[in-house]
Specification:
Helix content is about 30%, strand content about 25%. The protein has 7 helices and 12 strands. A 7-stranded mixed β-sheet has the order 1-2-3-4-5-6-7, with helices on one face. Strands 8-9-10-11-12 form a 5-stranded mixed β-sheet, covered by helices on one side.
Length: about 240
């Protein structure tokens, strides 16, 4: 029996491309389906959430998730990654070091922001590091005509920001937390404001005027929103 995106609480963005806004931190995850493979973009905030996403993705794609792209190393995007045990994992080069060396800091941030300590402990114990660090760009073939570009566009929101471009009509760009719609973009101690604007310029160069841009938090937006957020960040940080 075929299940629709809407039946599972997902939003279909383009043919074979959708996203889900997760409860708690309004974090977005994405799914891109090809003829032979399926790519998940981010993995949620814990193993239970990751397991739920794995089940829903299998129902939508008709197969297990084969590839997982982590947009940046914050707990609400990576703590569910171990649920995708058989997937090839990709991240911006350097993410693997953060996930190896800064586990306790990630756990502390998660608990401080409201994640149950037991869920945080389980996630940290099973934390997955990317098998494939992306230094510049990496093209994935998911079968048929479906190719996806993984682009290291950071630093910006963190030291290691990865964007995912899905060609098509429309193009879809998964932005991670370089773009946020449901609130002002968060800039923690690992943010690099001086380079954030350039990262947004790279996003706009990838997608162009007609793309759909998927923020890490909030509703999908257009190129005009990304430019406006770029200008707001320039004023906020005093950079150009």
């Amino acid at each position: 029996m075929t299940v629709t995106w809407e039946e599972l609480g997902w939003e279909r963005i383009a043919a074979g491309v959708g996203r889900c806004r997760l409860p708690g931190w309004d974090c977005t995850v994405g799914l891109v389906i090809g003829d032979d493979a399926a790519l998940m973009v981010d993995a949620g905030s814990g193993l239970p959430e990751g397991a739920r996403l794995r089940t829903e993705a299998r129902a939508l794609a008709g197969r297990a998730v084969t590839h997982l792209a982590l947009t940046h190393p914050h707990f609400d995007h990576v703590f569910g990654a171990a649920a995708f045990a058989d997937a090839e994992v990709y991240g911006a080069a350097g993410v693997e070091r953060v996930l190896a060396d800064e586990r306790e800091a990630l756990r502390a941030d998660a608990v401080e922001n409201g994640l149950h300590a037991r869920v945080a402990d389980e996630a940290v114990a099973a934390l997955v590091r990317p098998h494939h660090p992306v230094s510049d760009a990496w093209t994935l073939s998911l079968g048929g005509d479906r190719q996806v570009l993984l682009a290291n566009v950071g630093p910006g929101h963190t030291g290691h920001d990865l964007a995912v471009l899905v060609p098509g009509s429309p193009k879809v760009v998964f932005c991670g937390d370089l773009v946020e719609e449901s609130g002002e973009p968060q800039a923690g101690p690992d943010a690099t404001p001086a380079h954030w604007l350039a990262a947004l310029d790279r996003l706009l160069s990838l997608g162009g005027e007609d793309a759909v841009y998927v923020p890490g938090h909030g509703a999908v937006v257009d190129a005009g929103f990304v430019r406006a957020q770029r200008d707001a960040l320039a004023a906020r940080f005093g950079v150009s």
